[in-house]
Design brief:
mainly alpha; Recoverin, domain 1; three-stranded antiparallel beta sheet; globular; 6% strand
Length: 167
């Protein structure tokens, strides 16, 4: 927790410098509380860095493709000159990401994660997949992660302005 707290403090200090007046001084504290609520429900005082990173990536303002690539980087394993994501790596990613909607009572069961994992690996003979297969599957908007592109689209529309006048 201390490591994540320090990381968040640095992250939000940098954000405050880049966007003066737009970052709440308690942002690091609030974010840490959210991460604890999502990933330390039993009160162990331990949150996996990778889980916290997945949540921060998912909740960031970056593009979907950038988020998907970052997920792959955090959960893939190196295999020679290429990185691969295994079934267990994908299961971990999906389980970690599903803690985000779970915090507001919108989680799916473990069977959803298993179904999504089988779907992603459908027709794959190897025990792991390359980034392009992973990205292709995510672009198909699997039901288990439908909330992610939906949230992205909602946040993207906040910046849209129309010059129409209402009566």
């Amino acid at each position: 927790m201390q490591q994540i707290s320090r990381m968040l403090t640095k992250l939000f200090q940098r954000a405050r410098l880049e966007k003066p007046g737009q970052v709440d001084p308690r942002a690091a504290e609030f974010t840490l509380s959210l991460l604890i609520a999502m990933y330390d429900r039993s009160g162990t005082g331990f949150v996996k860095i990778r889980s916290a990173a997945a949540a921060l990536i998912a909740l960031s303002g970056d593009t979907l493709l950038a988020k998907y690539r970052a997920f792959f980087q955090f959960y893939a394993i190196p295999d020679g000159n290429v990185a691969l994501i295994t079934r267990s790596g994908l299961r971990s990613l999906l389980t970690d990401l599903n803690q985000i909607p779970a915090i507001v009572g919108e989680s799916c069961s473990l069977s959803c994660v298993e179904i999504a994992t089988r779907d992603c690996f459908h027709g794959v003979l190897n025990s792991a997949i390359v980034e392009e297969k992973f990205l292709s599957w995510l672009r198909s908007e699997p039901a288990v992660l439908l909330w992610l592109p939906t949230c992205y689209r909602l946040s993207a529309t906040e910046m849209v302005s129309h010059q129409a006048r209402c009566r």
